[in-house]
Design a protein that fits this description.
By secondary structure, this protein is an alpha+beta fold. The chain has one domain (7-173): Alpha-Beta Complex (Nucleoside Triphosphate Pyrophosphohydrolase). The protein is 24% helix and 39% strand. The protein has five helices and nine strands, in the order E-E-H-E-E-E-E-H-E-E-E-H-H-H. Strands 3, 4, 5, 6, 7, 8 and 9 form a seven-stranded mixed sheet that branches. The longest helix has 13 residues, at 75-87. The termini are far apart. The model has no long low-confidence stretch (mean pLDDT 95).
Length: 174
Amino acid sequence: MNTHPIIIPAIAGDGSLYPVEKLKAHVDGLFHLAISIFVFDGEQLLIQKRASSKYHCGGLWANTCCSHPYWDEPIDRCARRRLREELGFNVPLSRRRVVEYSADVGNGLHEHEKVTMYIGNADRNSIELLPDPLEVEETRWISKDELHAEIARQPESFTPWFRIYAERYPDLVF
């Protein structure tokens, strides 16, 4: 287990990047870079339940994968790396768009992120999901209608960013 602080790129007011510890970025609500990945099998989206031990939003459902690049890591490389680390597989990813959001994620933490969003396609029968139990508690495939119905019925079961994506970017989420 890595005991060193994770250093990620934060964004200054002039748009330049500077290194910051990931936890500090969330404690102080600093604007920083992130990635979000959505992997589909036809009309079904792969979602994950975050490990309960995560320092924020543990036990909540989120999109396929989301994370932060390391300070000196290209964003596309981060997306491929985190999909493999969290879920144990790789598929070709394409950049879809860049969005910004801000949300209280509980435990005194706040996310203010500039997120590069990626789409991937997979045949669920051709990939082997190998979730890292320190990151992912559970996975499942879900349709657009099922997802929106679940979010409406139990919004507290989903991460704040995933609810924001589903509301603001329905063309991306489905």
